Amino acid sequence: MQKRDMERKEIERAKLQAKLQREKKARLCEEAKKKIRFIEESKGMPMAREGSEGELYWISDEERDETEAYWRNRSKKFCE
């Protein structure tokens, strides 16, 4: 009986871990989608980024493209 209880608890723990992983993946997917939408909606407008000390600076088109590629890769990873 004790063995069954341990097995049941292990199964419940595994189900909980799987649920938490699915929720985390969904959050990361949604974040990536929001970032992509923002980038797409702001095409043609200057884009700023926050520096390490809180200062804002304008990013180049190359940096913008790299940022977009980063979020698209994350979208592929977490939204599928």
What's this, in brief?
By secondary structure, the chain is mainly alpha-helical.
Describe the protein in words.
The protein is mostly helical and 80 residues long. It has one domain (2-79). It contains two helices and two strands. The protein has helices at 2-41, 61-79; strands at 48-50, 56-58. A two-stranded antiparallel sheet has the order 1-2. A hairpin with a 5-residue loop joins strand 1 (48-50) and strand 2. Helix 1 (2-41) packs antiparallel against helix 2. It is elongated.
How many domains make up the 3D coordinates?
1
Q: In terms of per-residue confidence, which ranges show pLDDT below 50 for 5 or more consecutive residues?
A: none
User: What's the number of extended β-strand segments?
Assistant: 2
Percent of residues in beta strands? Answer: 5-15%
Structural class: mainly alpha
Strand order of the largest sheet: 1-2
- The Cα radius of gyration reads 20 Å
**End-to-end separation:** 41 Å
Main sheet specs: 2 strands, antiparallel
Anisotropy-based shape: elongated
Helix content: over 70%
How many helices? The count is 2
Overall pLDDT, averaged?
Answer: 93
Q: Give the topology string: H per helix, E per strand.
A: HEEH
